[in-house]
Amino acid sequence: MVLFGIYLVKVTLLSGLLYAYYHFLLRDRQTFGWSRFYLLAAAGVSVGVPLLNIPLHLTVPHTGTPTVAPLLKCIPGTGEADPAGAPMATAAPVIPWTQVALGLYALAGTVLLGLLVYHIKALFRLERRSEHHQMGDVTLIATDAPGTPFSFFRWIFWDRQLSVHSANGQAIFRHELAHVRQRHSVDKMFLQLLCAVLFPVFPLYLIRRELQLIHEYLADQAATEEEDAGDYARYLLEHALYAKGHRVAHAFHQHPLAKRIAMIGRQIHPPAWSRWMILPFFLAGSALFAFTPTPKAARTLTVVIDAGHGGLDPGAPGGGLLEKNITLDIARAVARLAPGYGVNILESRPGDSLVDIEDRILFAGRHKADAFVSIHVNLSSPGETGIKNFISVRNRFADSSALLGSLLAGHLGRIYPTEKVLRTHEEHIGVLDRNVCPAALIECGYISNPKDRAFISKPANQDKIARAILESLADYANGRGGKTLQIQGGSQ
């Protein structure tokens, strides 16, 4: 929900920026066709660009010692696998406000989409019970329904009392035919859907309103090609007392008459080059909201990334995959992406070789590593799933390791289900117990679980895991830590 909220803010700001540019610099100053293109592009870009994920690395200065909440009592594990999982600490029930907000949003969006479907179905009901006249590729539907004439895609709903062969009728028919031929209903449905799904984004309503007005300008322009502008303005005034048109259709009389009459026959033709003056602004504004801020270490942090197993030790097998290959791929992804996060990554196992546990620890000491992160995958019954994080409470870096593990769990939890506790192991884990720096071990899902296996075997997801690890390390370097997770005993 937080990510979706950020997305809505980005859409609102970008659409507001693009609409403001239109309102102050383009409105009533450009050709109507160009204005239509700009408004459609502004809506599409506003919705699409924030979905892009272009990392923008931000350096956060170190402001002091991180505040770490007191650790809960460590519950030692038994050293044996527990298919049901380790017992979780009970807590007082809390109201899941995030889920409540998301549910209310979904409910409101469903209601708005339902209203849109209701209005469309009303048009289909009207079409079925009315008289049809085929006029080329357009269907003229004669009806006594209020609000006619109006158009919807290739249907023109026509007032039975208005002769299509009269001068008045011919002008109005040309107007509605322009809506059909220029596919204005497609534009309108696109904006209606956006406004229903992203209803808190107010600038989208402004874009929709302006686009509907541009549609009328274009249709009026087509209608006056064979009609005196003064006579056509009179026709508009004669229909001013008609009932309001259908919500999802284009009604002849529906939009502000004063502006439409003022714009009849008025078509500004600026130099062609002037239209492209908006391009730098358009691209710059769009790019601004395509970036996703990611933390970058204010000081260079040296971290050993330890790919578990290797060489003659394949690790856990599952689904034709081997743990040693998956861990090496993830470690390499961390090393490849690290420069953008200001973290110096050293690989304890850069290739498919068997590296002794003591050599991994000596490697960290020799390079004066600030932290050590060991990458593994788990193996258990097929029902076990999710990422788990392990630390040790047996060495002098227990508190720092707990902070590091908590940050890892937080960032990894954003991309895949992750246990919200830190685990220890009753048995000896050398890379944790005897390390020369704060250390954490990540079990990146279960190779025995088809869903986990499918996730961790895809390079794109391995990059996601790598970025989550690097974001955690950048926060760790910057002293950005919150509440340390509970520590529980458990087995690998």
UniProtKB/TrEMBL annotation:
E.C. number: 3.5.1.28
An annotated GO cellular component: outer membrane-bounded periplasmic space
Domain MurNAc-LAA: 361-474
Cited SUPFAM superfamilies: Zn-dependent exopeptidases
GO BP terms in the entry: peptidoglycan catabolic process
Catalytic EC class: hydrolase
InterPro entries from the UniProt entry: MurNAc-LAA_cat, N-acetylmuramoyl_amidase_3
Transmembrane segments: 6-25, 37-56, 102-120, 189-207
Keywords in alphabetical order: Hydrolase, Membrane, Transmembrane, Transmembrane helix
SMART domains assigned: Ami_3
Pfam family, one: Amidase_3
Gene Ontology MF annotations: N-acetylmuramoyl-L-alanine amidase activity
Catalytic reactions of this protein: Hydrolyzes the link between N-acetylmuramoyl residues and L-amino acid residues in certain cell-wall glycopeptides
Stored PANTHER family: N-ACETYLMURAMOYL-L-ALANINE AMIDASE, N-ACETYLMURAMOYL-L-ALANINE AMIDASE AMIC
Protein name: N-acetylmuramoyl-L-alanine amidase
Organism listed in the record: Dinghuibacter silviterrae
